[in-house]
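Protein in question passed on here:
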Amino acid sequence: MDPVLNPYVPGAGRRPAALVGRDDVIKTWDTMLRRAERERTDPPLVLYGLRGVGKTVLLTRLRHDADGREWITVQIEAGTGRSLREMVGEGLYGPLSDLARPSAGKRLLRALKTALSFKASYDQTGSWSFGLDLSGESGGGADSGVLETDLKKILKEVSLAAAEEGKGLALLIDEAQDLSTEDLTTLVAVSHAAAQDTWPVLFALTGLPSLPQTLSEAKSYSERFRFVEVERLDSDSAAAALADPAKAEGVAWDDEALSHVVECSGRYPYFIQQFGQEAWNAALGERIDRRAAELGVISGLGQLDNGFFRARWDRTTQKEKGYLRAMCPEGEEGIGSGEVANRLKRTIQSQSMVRRSLIRKGIVYAPDHGIVAFTVPGMVGFISRQHGE
């Protein structure tokens, strides 16, 4: 089959040709956008789940939907070494630059001047001008040095400027569990203020299964957030994620081949894209048959082992690798920390630092007290293929 026409796009955050099985979340976000435009601001939308279920892809779709309504949008990724203050500031610069013009209304000019002060709060050497003389305009004051105060100020001014045009501001944060405690606490407080005062600003966050608990520990009123677990696809949606893109290119899947890839993928979107791409490349004609499907799964597993799994495995120490091995084979569903320690012939206390480190690296999480589980589906299989590495 022609690889140029291959419609499958494996990789973190890459938008698939067919985004299926997520209609409920998309409809919820659309309702939130429309309500905010009517001065009815909803609490943040929090999407959480294992790695590989398509949270980043879904978050990007939500941003595109807000863009389509001409909202000001900022999408950032936590865990990159930058503070929330800097990420928000740099994310706002582009959209605000596009809006800056001499004929801008007073509200927008005020927001632009406030943005200049916010920039100065984290970068004393750089500066923005927006190509306008704002010296005589009101605004500013987002450089107190107190994160909550400054973030409230900038988001309020920008969202109210957007409201003059019947729009709003959307702040979307990927990998939110990697935000610092201060950043998370501030984010919860600011979103609460936005909902109380009906600023047209919406928040959408994605993260690992630990995110709801992390937010709850940051501020009690985060319990009012809208939490949605993003799970693997149902069988019909998984089949559609494979069949629909191929059909658009004039290619069909044999039923047996489709069932094989759906089963082997575990219905995880990341794996569906990887196996689909490899099965397409292995097909000899205008159909993807069982032979191509089987070769695609074998080749796809090799690609996943060398990339998706290896990237996480190589970040661990030898002690951490031993802990991960001891979690098998129950680690997909969850295993008691005490049982892991017993298998290692160690005490629970002696393994607590290893466990915390693996949680901090996003490789395991605690679904319940005293339980650990892999954040990465298929990790048990990968570890079993390492031949005692």
